[in-house]
Amino acid sequence: MADADAAIASFMAITGSADENTARFWVDAAGGNVELAVGNFLDGNNAGGAAAPPPQDDAAVAAALHAREMEHEVRAPDSVKRGRLLADFPGADDDEDAYTPGAGAFDDDEDDEEAEKPAGGLSSIFAPPTELTHSGDFQKARADGKAQKKWLLVVITNEAVFACHEMNRDCWSDDTVRAVVEASFILWLRPHTDPQASTYCDRYDRDRALPLQGGYSAHPVHPHLAVVDPRTGRRVWTKDGKVSRDRLVELLSDITERHSLEELAPVQVAPRAATPPPPAPLVGGAALGGGVGSAFAAPPPPPAPPPPPADPWADAVLSPEPAAGGVMVAFRGPGIQRKRRFVETDAVAALFKYVQAEAKPAGGFDLLCGFPPRQLAPMASTPLKDADVHGQAVQMKLTS
């Protein structure tokens, strides 16, 4: 109490105020801080230097504060206006009731956005490709691939790894990827907790498999992708981790171009040739059953080497490379990796003659183009402008 009285006395001495109630109001409002009370008092003075009389109740204090806040003029809010974004449609009168909801500029966009939203939400966006996945076990998928002459594409996923869901969204739902898979592959997709996926891991990656509960095994990185030859069970390609859509199309296309399920036909064992009888021993300088001349006769001459195979493309017309225009073809294969322009009127046989001269293959070869790969040999007489090879990559494959 003594401190409050001392603060009030100090306030009255500094400000020169003789009203103890006024001093007590400003000191109490400043929480007993004399300097703050004096500052507030001086700030509240009017132009004539006299302090405003302190309010005596809460209502008066609130009214005074409100009056100080309203010292600065606040602009009133704009009035509500109503308009139309587009002019009246043909046949509509000026009556506002003639406007048809749904004919506005934004109504169609909103409808389109609603139509584009997937019905199942996020679950449908990241859903696995069940309609593209083989439903049988690994051996059944391999048998179907062998019967249909398609590669077995193995994919092992992990629900806890977001990269697996990204591939569901970006790769397996893409039309190009689906077309490549449906044309040349059988997709065998399983979660890593599936017993069949564990069996696959034990068979192909036992040295780096991680143990799971229940005695199962799993790959250390997901998703795991591999391409398996359905005839031999040998893996021709494998990848751990996410693969982008474009890279996946490139890798799968390259596998179908470089390997063929038609190449490894069942091996036919040739019958054994009859073993010639051993020569008769010499007795007294001559073989049994013959004279001296027959024993020391000159050996037969070695057989003549077979003639070199004839070049089937020797008669093909190969025009000089044009400086611009024409048909541009990129060649890939053993001994050749380059691009060249060809005259549009030259036949497809010109491609074979060019590869024969540049790569110099020891045996026969074929040229493949596009996806799925198509053979160009049956189109040897077709003009290049009609063969759909412009801007394409042509793969050379040895056949003998």
UniProtKB/TrEMBL annotation:
For this UniProt entry, which residues form the secretion signal?
Answer: none
All copies of domain UAS, residue ranges: 121-253
Species of provenance:
Pelagomonas calceolata
Q: Where is this region: Disordered?
A: 75-128, 295-319
Mind telling me what this protein is named?
UAS domain-containing protein
Task: Give the compositionally biased regions (Pro residues).
Answer: 298-311
**Highest taxon above the source species:** Eukaryota
Pfam families, alphabetized: Thioredoxin_7, UBA_4, UBX
**PANTHER family in the record, alphabetically?**
FAS-ASSOCIATED PROTEIN (PTHR23322), UBX DOMAIN-CONTAINING PROTEIN 7 (PTHR23322:SF6)
Record field: compositional bias (Acidic residues): 106-115
What terms describe the molecular function in GO for this protein?
ubiquitin binding
